Amino acid sequence: xxxxxxxxxxxxxxxxxxxxxxxxxxxxxxxxxxxxxxxxxxxxxxxxxxxxxxxxxxxxxxxxxxxxxxxxxxxxxxxxxxxxxxxxxxxxxxxxxxxxxxxxxxxxxxxxxxxxxxxxxxxxxxxxxxxxxxxxxxxxxxxxxxxxxxxxxxxxxxxxxxxxxxxxxxxxxxxxxxxxxxxxxxxxxxxxxxxxxxxxxxxxxxxxxxxxxxxxxxxxxxxxxxxxxxxxxxxxxxxxxxxxxxxxxxxxxxxxxxxxxxxxxxxxxxxxxxxxxxxxx
Length: 281
What we know:
Layout: E1 2-6, H1 12-24, E2 29-33, H2 38-45, E3 47-49, H3 65-72, H4 78-91, H5 101-114, H6 118-139, H7 149-168, H8 173-186, H9 194-201, H10 205-215, H11 221-239, H12 244-250, H13 256-267, H14 271-280
Parallel strand pairs: 1-2, 1-3
Helix pairs in contact: 1-3, 1-6, 4-5, 4-6
InterPro entries: ChrB_C, Homeodomain-like_sf, HTH_AraC, HTH_AraC-typ_CS, Tscrpt_reg_AraC-type_HTH
Pfam family, one: ChrB_C
Protein name: Chromate resistance protein ChrB domain-containing protein
């Protein structure tokens, strides 16, 4: 069977083909085309479209296309349930769902950046998900340090040091500088990058990532930036005549469906319902 979706895949459009090949359609053929050609080419090539709006295999509420494939085809493998959480967290920028989601996003984005041929990217991505499946099946409970008493001891000492240091710590000077950087971006399209910010602040990126939540409302970097994006979007909805698509772009969201999901998660309403509610007041 032929399956067709948008070009330039990163998360769902690599994870779903891997899932299809492994559990649903062993002879599957995958086609990547520009977004505005998917439905037309699907009819022309007798292919099943996926991971675009208004087709069966797509996002539903807070779940991504990978989740729908698992549900639709009644896949009961426990390892797939683990992977589904990771994929959902990576694909919807909700890295709190699974701690591995941030890593999957980073690796997937890097692969997409390095490999411009979508079919070569899929071939490489299949290897990535094969490895992830082996980990989820056999190594999910295993920790890197558990077989090394010496490294484990160092890890415990380091954690104790951080705990003791936290109790006596003052707010570092970089916190004020970072708040100003983020504030400067609120009135422009969000292009915040932790590595670039670390360089601007002259801080190690790992240190900044680890220490960030202590000074920013117990939120990690991605969560805090998303919160700022939504607050900016709320302000634009309440005080401007921009369309919701324009607001999504102005606040740094790559597409309106992603914007809608994140907005609803933060406010309890989708953007259009929120705007209607405001106009009734």
